[in-house]
């Protein structure tokens, strides 16, 4: 890599991690904790009706604020949450991916969740980040099984879950914004992940 290009990449990486504590790194992304200054970047996704179709439409400013506050509380209380996904090459915030504790039909589970800006769909970024978060859940948190709970109409997120080695285990209904939303429960066990790693 030419020296000036390398310097640009290094500067972008420093910028990508300066705002929040870095958690994970993939080939193209740094996953870092969200901070107060990420509000406007979050709005690019959370206020995009097409990106938020699984949530029955875009969030208003108060809902974005609540979303951000919830992640900050998760870092404090659980030690993890949804993290900012930032491109190494440019330092641009392009989405979120991380681990959260979710209610799975009455049972608390650790979920891999992901939500990316529409401009960065279909580039494999969600899968890349989701795999890293899955492995973090197993190798750092010591989980035996990791989940993704996905609305039945959200085919794109289901594709990411399958690429993350997950298979459907069941389904249940959530109610959100007054809407009945069937969800499919995807998961992968540590043993299944290890078998995938051996085949890779």
Task: Give your account of this protein's structure.
With 200 residues, this protein is of the alpha+beta class. It has a single domain, classed as Gcn5-related N-acetyltransferase (GNAT) (Aminopeptidase), CATH 3.40.630. The chain is 38% helix and 32% strand. It is built from six helices and eight strands, in the order H-E-E-H-H-E-E-E-H-E-H-E-E-H. The strands form two sheets. Strands 1-2-3-4-5 form a five-stranded antiparallel β-sheet, sandwiched between helices. Strand 7 and strand 8 form a beta hairpin. Helix 2 crosses helix 3 (61-78). The protein is globular. The two termini are 28 Å apart.
Which structural traits does this protein have?
single chain; 200 residues; alpha+beta; Aminopeptidase; 3-stranded antiparallel β-sheet; 6 helices; 38% helix; disordered N terminus
Summarize the structure.
With 200 residues, the protein is α+β, with helices and mostly antiparallel strands. The protein has helices at residues 3-18, 39-46, 61-78, 125-139, 155-163, 190-199; strands spanning 22-25, 29-32, 82-87, 93-104, 107-116, 145-151, 167-176, 179-189.
Set out the fold topology.
Layout: H1 3-18, E1 22-25, E2 29-32, H2 39-46, H3 61-78, E3 82-87, E4 93-104, E5 107-116, H4 125-139, E6 145-151, H5 155-163, E7 167-176, E8 179-189, H6 190-199
Antiparallel strand pairs: 1-2, 2-3, 3-4, 4-5, 6-8, 7-8
**Spatial arrangement of strands, main beta sheet:** 1-2-3-4-5
Largest sheet: 5 strands, antiparallel
Indicate the proportion of strand residues: 25-35%
Briefly note the CATH topology name.
Aminopeptidase
Total helical elements: 6
Mean pLDDT value: 90
Instruction: Report how far the terminal alpha carbons are from each other.
Output: 28 Å
Radius of gyration equals: 17 Å
Low-confidence stretches: 1-9, 11-18
**From the helix content, strand content and strand pairing, which structural class follows?**
alpha+beta
């Amino acid at each position: 890599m030419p020296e000036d290009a390398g310097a640009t990449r290094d500067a972008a990486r420093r910028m990508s991690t300066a705002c929040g504590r870095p958690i994970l790194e993939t080939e193209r992304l740094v996953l870092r904790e969200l901070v107060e200054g990420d509000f406007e970047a979050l709005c690019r996704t959370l206020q995009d009706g097409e990106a938020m179709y699984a949530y029955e439409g875009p969030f208003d400013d108060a809902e974005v604020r609540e979303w951000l506050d919830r992640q900050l509380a998760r870092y404090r209380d659980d030690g993890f949450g949804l993290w900012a996904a930032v491109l190494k090459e440019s330092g641009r915030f392009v989405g979120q991916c991380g681990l959260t504790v979710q209610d799975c039909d009455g049972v608390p589970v650790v979920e891999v969740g992901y939500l990316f800006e529409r401009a960065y769909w279909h580039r494999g970024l969600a899968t890349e980040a989701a795999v890293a978060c899955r492995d973090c859940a197993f190798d750092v948190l010591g989980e035996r099984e990791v989940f993704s709970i996905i609305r039945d109409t959200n085919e794109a997120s289901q594709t990411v879950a399958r690429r993350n080695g997950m298979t459907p285990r069941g389904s249940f209904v959530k109610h959100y914004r007054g809407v009945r939303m069937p969800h499919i429960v995807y998961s992968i066990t540590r043993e299944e992940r290890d078998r995938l790693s051996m085949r890779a």
